[in-house]
Amino acid sequence: MEWFAKRLGISVLLVWIVASIVFLAIHLVPGDPAELLLSQGGAAPDPAIVEDLRDQLGLNRPVLEQYLHSMANLLRGDLGNSLMDGAPIAGEIATRLPRTLELIGAAALISVLIGVSTGTLAAVAAGGPFDRVASALAGLGLSVPVFVIGTLAILGFAQTLRWVPAGGFVAFSQDPVQHLIMLAMPAGTIAVGLSSTLFRVTRSAVLEVTMRDHVRTARSKGLSFRRILTRHILRNALIPVVTVLALNLGTLLGGTVLVEYVFNWPGLSGLLVDAVNARDYPAVVGVVLVISILFVTLNFVVDMLYAVLDPRVRHG
């Protein structure tokens, strides 16, 4: 329980640090945010209008007061309102965030099923035909950029074979089957690189664990290979796999921009791009902060998985 409370406290501290950095970044960036927002057309804005916007954004108040006000709003879950339409940013994020998480979750599921299973089989049959072919395909999957994979997927499956639509979004509640069909290509595109990474990590980890003394002892006792693989090899080999998966999922939280753009998937990344293009400053801060909080939360979950996979972590 003490270990859990310690990790939880560290996660909360990290969230506070991230929130503080995001706030300080506002004041470190050269230029007046209000003036930048009003200068999208290229012409110099009216100073009176700039001053009104500064007052509206609270930029005229002392920095410490702005910081305390921002932290208080964060504790209440208030991310402010969009400068474009005045709508609450939290509401827009709440609408788009599940779509991005669904995309990443589907990609992660596909990657784990393919990467871990093929990596294990390749390690068991190391040096064989399956190992050589799978390793070559994994290397190819790591070398091709995600936007190229997405473009080829649209060209092959949507335009040539016409199996799936080229892109778009349909709510699951409206048409579950069509929703999953439209989810398949963007999730599969992300899964190509991630499954290749998991394949290589799993293969290396299984080969390394196989050579350990406790595995050799289990073999000498006459235990079946299937039991040794599931109870002694995979349990230890999954620890680095979980690490790599968590790091890549954190990266995907901020790296789905291209995929969502190519497939016209209305997720959180699309909101961030639109906010940057429109100079919607509060929306940019809100999205970045939410992504950061999710990353910290993901690391906390990984710590919990470590404790389950390796009880020594709790006593370290």
UniProtKB/TrEMBL annotation:
<dbReference type="GO" id="GO:0005886">
    <property type="term" value="C:plasma membrane"/>
</dbReference>
<dbReference type="InterPro" id="IPR035906">
    <property type="entry name" value="MetI-like_sf"/>
</dbReference>
<keyword id="KW-0472">Membrane</keyword>
<feature type="transmembrane region" description="Helical">
    <location>
        <begin position="103"/>
        <end position="125"/>
    </location>
</feature>
<dbReference type="InterPro" id="IPR045621">
    <property type="entry name" value="BPD_transp_1_N"/>
</dbReference>
<keyword id="KW-0812">Transmembrane</keyword>
<protein>
    <submittedName>
        <fullName>Peptide ABC transporter</fullName>
    </submittedName>
</protein>
<feature type="transmembrane region" description="Helical">
    <location>
        <begin position="237"/>
        <end position="263"/>
    </location>
</feature>
<keyword id="KW-1133">Transmembrane helix</keyword>
<keyword id="KW-0813">Transport</keyword>
<dbReference type="Pfam" id="PF19300">
    <property type="entry name" value="BPD_transp_1_N"/>
</dbReference>
<comment type="similarity">
    <text>Belongs to the binding-protein-dependent transport system permease family.</text>
</comment>
<feature type="transmembrane region" description="Helical">
    <location>
        <begin position="283"/>
        <end position="309"/>
    </location>
</feature>
<keyword id="KW-1003">Cell membrane</keyword>
<feature type="domain" description="ABC transmembrane type-1">
    <location>
        <begin position="97"/>
        <end position="306"/>
    </location>
</feature>
<feature type="transmembrane region" description="Helical">
    <location>
        <begin position="179"/>
        <end position="202"/>
    </location>
</feature>
<dbReference type="Pfam" id="PF00528">
    <property type="entry name" value="BPD_transp_1"/>
</dbReference>
<feature type="transmembrane region" description="Helical">
    <location>
        <begin position="137"/>
        <end position="159"/>
    </location>
</feature>
<dbReference type="InterPro" id="IPR000515">
    <property type="entry name" value="MetI-like"/>
</dbReference>
<feature type="transmembrane region" description="Helical">
    <location>
        <begin position="12"/>
        <end position="29"/>
    </location>
</feature>
<dbReference type="GO" id="GO:0071916">
    <property type="term" value="F:dipeptide transmembrane transporter activity"/>
</dbReference>
